[in-house]
Known about the structure:
The radius of gyration is 22 Å and the shape is globular.
Amino acid sequence: xxxxxxxxxxxxxxxxxxxxxxxxxxxxxxxxxxxxxxxxxxxxxxxxxxxxxxxxxxxxxxxxxxxxxxxxxxxxxxxxxxxxxxxxxxxxxxxxxxxxxxxxxxxxxxxxxxxxxxxxxxxxxxxxxxxxxxxxxxxxxxxxxxxxxxxxxxxxxxxxxxxxxxxxxxxxxxxxxxxxxxxxxxxxxxxxxxxxxxxxxxxxxxxxxxxxxxxxxxxxxxxxxxxxxxxxxxxxxxxxxxxxxxxxxxxxxxxxxxxxxxxxxxxxxxxxxxxxxxxxxxxxxxxxxxxxxxxxxxxxxxxxxxxxxxxxxxxxxxxxxxxxxxxxxxxxxxxxxxxxxxxxxxxxxxxxxxxxxxxxxxxxxxxxxxxxxxxxxxx
Length: 379
């Protein structure tokens, strides 16, 4: 972003700005220009990798498509089977629903999947498939040949790292889930909408991973479920739950507004940072369709990521009286470690509007009108 662009651009009316900077041009380089990005406050959502591929890079992509991509696609299907089928088969055999949830004689009668401890065999299969196999797939399929782990957690005299019931991470890509799943000490739970548990195949895996299913329309929201899960974790045998407080992906250069859900239980939190390094293609997912994103990701010779586990953070007595102070302190810790800043005026709703503009779905005037409506509702 060009720091020389001053705030005078916000003094222009929508019509004046649109005319001066040709904001309705269909040229992507204009719609993604620094001045329009700043006006629409889209700094956290632009791709950052509009640099033209040099000739050698284009040749490299062609060679990958011819010789490497077929092997990667084949490897994807092989590892997809290795990572999911054993988990699904074991879940079917153990029949958590029949033996526990619907069994009146079970101590877990009518409890949720995330509240029921896994058997030793089930835990072993989850660790093998969701951690070890995914680690291999990240390198062979997704070309993450450079994976750097920085573990800054406090350890006891036996070398065991301190952990927490809640894991909070910045969110830049769908790959974040795979990295946390495979490189954290245990395979954690994730928050998922209730209907996902009913999806064939995917739902079985989500249940086996003890996902925290939520349905806000039933009145028992995310915060309540997270608190219950965290309290069970403290009693042992339940994995921690991962939450992305930004609620959407960014380009990795900034942190955006944190939601309060992860912080209201006032439990210790384990911050995890994921930083993708790139020269031409940014593995962060902000504008591209899923097909185009994975096409770009799988046709790179090599991708690079750095994962940092920070020390566990606990709320102070003062922060227990004001959740925003706890939230803001943790966001500040993460931003400082990432060497970035927080843009708390940016959020998921704003991103969806900005994305429509970047993809030529809406005009600049329509974009600003939707922004005004969004900001008026938030006041």
